[in-house]
Design brief:
Length: 449
């Protein structure tokens, strides 16, 4: 027997029922992004591997152990599946001169990202992010806007328990001074450091602060705080951001140990965390990265952004019980049954004419008796079936059979079909099955005679 192949571990198929929820989610987020003036950008999924080394940092979890990097067998080029979107977005902005020629840019993208992590609930090897990047903005106003924007989306989805954590990483120089103090402190406690911390002591000591090891909490908590090393400008930026958030009524907690897993951040960093998702509670993370554009070869350009984990937000949405109201029903409006050669021609024409009017139509394919076709019509969930036999075909008429209401089966002329269909479908509709597409249909109905 031939062995069947399975999807790669940690990478999931999203089947139709689930994919419909995704589409609905994407529609809501698109409208939300547009309402803040963000414009879409689409980058390749594969980028040159060095891009991520330069942007994310050599001594980060992502670059050290999570990247899908490989050699292009045809030309030997080192490539990587993108583990996040900021690096590629900034690369694209530099390559196409976006900020230099068009001024500050508000950009977003969404799509799959790849990290070789241990798969578990809320953590996959292929996962999806919605990323937002504001390029060319220096002030705390854009930091505040990003966070206000997040808060609006949570409200829209009915998420009430996502909490905001905030920190400032200061400037590169301020970090250098803090780093020296941190290394001295960690060295004096060397015997209490775990293996990971020992290894990072001189390469990336800041990351030791966000250790998840329970035995390391005490030592991380007592370490020198970045806040005490901020200069006047960084402090003023952080305070202005906080004032704007207070004004907007957004609650936050300052977490001195929030440092983020990517090296490119400075000043503002933030995370939105839910306690409904276990250890994978961070649904959105971001901050300022003023040095990145220059680091990747562009002109100095201040910037800030965030990325949201789609799987985690969808898990919250599903749990909230709101999904079923928001997701467009997949049932067609009309199922077309037919038998005979002439009937088949008429069935194709009828289905197209109904689609012209805005209906969703499932045309039966594959033959079979009317009885078996009608079973399929019933199972489809459509409120209306069309019945087209050779008799109907000869008269250019169509059988109308209501499936969810008590109306009788009857025949109408081809011309009268859209109106007759509308009568059955809207007549059968109750308040509870309100369908968001109804408006479109009503528009179409009014336009037809
Ligand atoms: P974590 O601490 O959970 O590993 P991270 O700091 O590595 O997160 P970011 O690089 O900031 O994550 O990515 C932004 C968001 O993308 C995260 O907050 C999370 O919601 C989501 N995310 C990151 N990695 C994964 C993954 N492997 N599977 C699913 N979602 C993920
Ligand atoms: Mg991670």
């Amino acid at each position: 027997m031939i062995q069947t192949l399975q999807a790669v571990r940690g990478m999931k198929d999203i089947l139709p029922e689930e994919a419909e929820i995704w589409e609905s989610f994407e529609g809501i987020t698109r409208d939300w992004l547009k309402s803040y003036g963000y414009r879409p950008i689409r980058m390749p999924i594969v980028e040159p591997e060095p891009l991520f080394h330069r942007a994310i940092g050599e001594v980060t979890d992502i670059v050290e152990k999570e990247m899908y990097a490989f050699e292009d067998a045809l030309n030997g080029e080192r490539l990587a599946l993108r583990p996040e979107g900021t690096a590629g977005c900034v690369r694209a902005a530099i390559q196409h001169n976006l900020v230099a020629s068009g001024g500050p840019q508000r950009l977003y993208y969404q799509g799959p990202m790849f990290r070789h992590e241990r798969p578990q609930n809320g953590r996959y090897r292929q996962f999806h992010q919605i990323g937002v990047e504001a390029l060319g903005f220096a002030g705390p106003d854009i930091d505040a806007e990003l966070i206000v924007m997040n808060a609006r989306l949570w409200e829209q989805f009915g998420f009430t328990d996502i909490k905001l954590e905030l920190n400032s990483l200061g400037s590169a120089e301020e970090r250098t001074r803090h780093r020296a103090a941190l290394i001295a402190y960690l060295e004096s406690n060397r015997n209490k450091l775990d293996e990971d911390a020992q290894r990072r002591l001189h390469t990336n000591p800041l990351r030791i602060l966000d250790t998840k090891n329970p035995d390391m909490q005490e030592i991380a908590e007592a370490a020198p705080k970045l806040a005490d090393y901020l200069g006047e400008d960084s402090r003023a930026h952080f305070e202005a951001l906080q004032a704007l958030l207070v004004d907007a009524g957004i609650a936050f907690r300052i977490n001195h140990r929030l440092v983020r897993g990517l090296d490119y951040y400075n000043r503002t960093v933030f995370e939105w965390v839910s306690d409904r998702l276990g250890a994978q509670g961070t649904v959105c993370a971001g901050g300022r990265y003023d040095g990145l554009v220059e680091q990747l070869g562009g002109k100095p350009t201040p910037a800030a952004g965030f990325a949201m984990g789609a799987e985690r937000l969808l898990a919250l949405w599903r749990e909230s019980g709101e999904v079923e109201y928001a997701v467009e029903q997949s049932a067609p409006d009309i199922y077309v049954t037919h038998q005979g050669k002439h009937a088949q021609h008429l069935a194709f024409r009828a289905a197209e004419a109904l689609r012209d009017t805005g209906f969703d139509v499932l045309l039966h394919c594959g033959g079979g008796s009317f009885k078996s076709q009608m079973k399929k019509a019933d199972a489809s969930g459509a409120p209306l079936a069309l019945v087209i036999g050779e008799d109907e075909a000869a008269a250019d008429e169509i059988g109308i059979k209501p499936l969810r209401s008590s109306g009788k089966q009857h025949r109408v002329s081809f011309q009268a079909l859209p109106e007759a269909a509308a009568k059955v479908i809207y007549g059968a509709e109750t308040q509870q099955d309100y369908d968001p597409r109804e408006e479109n249909r009503q528009g179409a109905e009014n336009g037809s005679v």
